[in-house]
Amino acid sequence: MKLSTLPLCLSSCLLVGCGSGGSSSDTTQQNHALQIEHLSAGDTSVSFSNPSAFSQHVANMSDVERIRRFNLGDDFFENPWVEKQASTELRDGLGPLFNNNACQDCHIRDGRGHAPNVSATEDGTDFSSMLIRASRSIISDADLQAMQNGTLANVGDTSVGGQLQQNAIFAIEKESNLRVSYTTVIITFDDGYTVELRKPQWHLTSNYASQGYDFNADTVFSARVAPPMIGLGLLALIPEADILANEDINDTDQNTISGKANHVKNHVSGQVELGRFGWKAGQPTLRQQAAGAFNGDMGLTTEIFPDENCLLHQDDCLVSPNGNGDSSSDYNFEVSSAVLDLIELYSHNLAVPVRRNAYGEDVQKGKILFAQAGCNSCHVESYQTASSEEHLELSNQTIFPYSDSLLHDMGEDLADFTVDNVSVSDTVLVEYQANAKEWRTPALWGLGLTHTVDPEATFLHDGRARTIMEAILWHGGEAQGAKNAVLSFDNEERHALIEFLSDL
Predict the structure, then answer these.
(1) What is the largest CA-CA distance in the chain?
(2) Do 202 and 213 meet the contact criterion of CB atoms below 8 Å apart?
């Protein structure tokens, strides 16, 4: 059940005065909403606001064995994987091609990553917590139909496949060299206040060009920072019907918002299911999301993705030793099913911190402005999670993620791009049913603690925004109206809006 209107209604009453028309039952319901609004993740919320705020298990986890397994999952998430024939068999098999060697190095302290910086000491080449996806735009009718049906994610570039790998184990040539530079964009509010934005220019080269395997002319690139890990298990338990209730592909209500679900292949069940995770909602479950990251980001095989991440022309990659077959039958893959179980439990149960000042005057005023601007059309406030025997801690919780989990066209500025940094049309599918301009609405909980967890963290899918306000001002497409509304805010209103968002 969606509960998006209750706290909003109450906050309006607090600031402008309640009328006499409401019933006592309405008031009771609203007061209940007020009492729980600071608990972003219901009973699972934790009271942490320090650099480890995103690294706690859910507050209502009391079973000793589950806590032990959570901590074991944390160990595999945090510690680096190593090449085959290392002293540890539990974490060997890295690569041969990879982006990073530890989950935690991308999801820094379980938070988000950052785009490379450019300064006197940094040259824009540090892609340690982000990656670049690659997808062909000119494909066969059969492949296009499969993408539309949700059975094929995409067709990768013939030089590097579906993702550019900027690292490799010893004696193996890395796939690509990556660098970003920035130009300056000035945005002016109606009252003359200005904000300086940075627009990325991506510089991508394939190391196989000399062998006749340069990037395809039709390849579409997609830059993505690692998203935060908190609250994912709760998002997994939002009833599908509640997510689809906000879908409005043809904008029948004519509010310019046309949320769209992505439907993707579950590689375990073989069925097409609702996409819930990833920047374009390309994964249906956290287990598959983890397995995909192991394979694509770290070059590790699992029961879900059993093949090494090598193309036919990558001879050194194909013949490199791997970590399969270690110790027992449970180690038929580099990441055993037992380890994948631990990572799955860990990913489900990273807790969302409580809000610090949910009922403060400026915060409540900012919440009203957030709604008045129309931001809550996509950033839907609240849901009730379903019941789950497997995840009792996460069951039947009133949560406040501020997301509809749907795809939205965010405009040309935020679109995927060609190797020449030209924005790609919304007619091009790049990940199942998601086109080049569409992005899944991220949950906003924990937003205000982002820089507490990692001072270098950046915002939006490609990390171009250094602040929350910069992120807002890059919104376009379906969100253009909301951005225009924000541009009309005066200094007091801007302050209140950021106070609200910084409290999430």
Answers:
(1) 77
(2) no
